[in-house]
Specification:
Layout (H helix, E strand, L loop, with lengths): L2 E7 L9 H15 L6 E6 L2 E6 L4 H8 L5 E10 L3 H13 L6 E9 L8 H13 L5 E3 L6 E7 L4 E4 L3 E2 L11 E5 L5 H11 L3 E8 L6 H15 L4 E8 L1 H10 L5 H19 L5 E2 L12 H8 L6 E2 L7 H10 L3 H4 L21 H8 L4 H10 L2 E6 L5
Parallel strand pairs: 5-6, 5-7, 10-11, 10-13, 11-12, 13-14
Antiparallel strand pairs: 1-3, 1-4, 2-3, 4-8, 4-9, 7-8, 12-15
Helix pairs in contact: 3-4, 7-8, 8-9, 8-13
């Protein structure tokens, strides 16, 4: 078929009797990531996956697979027959692709096929001697070589490679269940979504928008963030909840200092109802501890009281610079900083309450027709299926 990619996983290898479940899910995610790049073939042997694909699709396939959680690294590989001389010839071809006069090299051999004659050091020595006699200006350096040629002796053929590209690590998406992510247009929540996906949770996203105060540009920003996250999990279901009526009622009926806390309590009520409808057992948010006035420990406790579902906050131990660093790594930062407001930034009080009691908030909520507001919000939610906008 053409070119071959060697795929390695890491954490899955520690899963004991559950390991086949994780391997099967990773295989499924690998195949889903390659949709549109047919024909291809995925093989599995002794803890390694191999993707056989047309040469023209090798680079886009590698870029997609680098985003598949569970994969720790990938290497484009040459194949050779189970013959030492053919392995030597292929090693020379591979070396010439990286050759510069006077360069240093090293041979690493892994002999998974124990029937192949010779030990791993003996094979490395033989191939190294062949290269030194090739007429190229080469030197051996076993400690700090400019090029390392890796040879894997398998049952049917041998694989050779010099490059290794990092994957995303983590666990295959879907192995640890499903979660509902509260996705704003800011920096934090898409990073929280990425970290949630990395731990094997398949997420759906819920975004609250406030037309006409938030326009199409703000909505498109959120859709683009979903598309970016979808590159790591195939696709994301995005729920768009209109929040204008709820915000207006809270602002008219409740103390200004409580606006943000009361809005987030109401968001969680909507999220809980939607999650139960979708058979999702947990809610994820991008909230941090102490980053802004509404994220004091007292506020977070008061917000959580509004729902019976567990609320998980992947960013709770990160400072802002660490979060921004990850947002640059996953390329969400340029989208997040587009100058379009989301509903959470519209009605920020001058002096937000930092240490509310649940009783104070409940007293304020007595002025609101909460059930009717939540019902109307739920009944007008729009749902979209978002796939990756960039798969290369």
């Amino acid at each position: 078929m053409g070119s071959l990619l060697l795929i390695r996983y890491g954490e899955i290898a520690l899963k004991g009797k559950n390991r086949p479940f994780f391997e099967k899910k990773l295989l499924q995610n690998i195949k889903e990531s390659l949709l549109g790049l047919e024909p291809y073939r995925v093989l599995f042997h002794r803890g390694r996956y191999y993707v056989e694909i047309a040469e023209d699709n090798l680079f886009p396939a590698r870029r997609r697979l680098e985003r598949v959680f569970g994969i720790v690294s990938l290497s484009p590989v040459f194949t050779a027959e189970l013959d030492l001389e053919d392995i030597c010839r292929q090693a020379l071809i591979l070396l010439k692709d990286n050759y510069e006069p006077g360069m240093t090299f090293k041979i690493n051999t892994r002999r998974a096929n124990k029937k192949f004659p010779g030990t791993s050091p003996e094979i490395s020595s033989h191939v190294g001697a062949y290269l030194l006699k090739s007429g190229l200006q080469l030197k051996v350096d076993v400690h700090n070589p400019e090029v390392s040629i890796n040879i894997e002796i398998r049952n049917e053929e041998a694989y050779l490679y010099t490059q290794s590209f990092p994957g995303s690590g983590g666990l295959p998406v879907g192995v640890t269940g499903r979660g509902l992510l509260l996705l704003s247009g800011g920096i934090d929540s898409p990073v929280a979504g990425w970290m949630t996906l990395k731990r094997g949770v398949h997420i759906e996203a819920l975004h609250f928008h406030s037309p006409p105060f938030t326009g199409d540009n703000a909505l498109n920003k959120v859709i683009d963030l979903c598309r970016l996250l979808a590159a790591y999990c195939g696709k994301i279901t995005l729920h768009l909840a209109p929040f204008t009526e709820i915000q207006k009622e809270i602002r008219l009926q409740c103390p200004e200092s409580m606006l943000i806390t009361l809005m987030r309590r109401t968001m969680l009520r909507v999220a809980e109802r939607l999650a139960k409808k979708r058979n999702i057992p947990v809610i994820f948010t991008g909230e941090n501890l102490g980053q802004v006035a509404s994220q004091t420990l007292e506020n977070l406790i008061a917000i959580d009281e509004a729902t019976a579902l567990p609320i998980l906050r992947p960013l709770v131990g990160f400072d802002k610079e660490e979060i921004i660093e990850i947002s640059h790594k996953i390329n969400s930062f340029p989208i997040s900083v587009r100058p379009f407001d989301d509903c959470c930034t519209l009605f920020v009080p001058k002096h937000p309450i930092t240490r509310p009691t649940v009783e104070e908030l409940q007293n304020a909520e007595e002025k609101l027709p909460l059930k009717e507001l939540v019902d109307r919000c739920l009944n007008t939610i729009q749902t979209k299926q978002i796939t990756a906008y960039e798969r290369v």
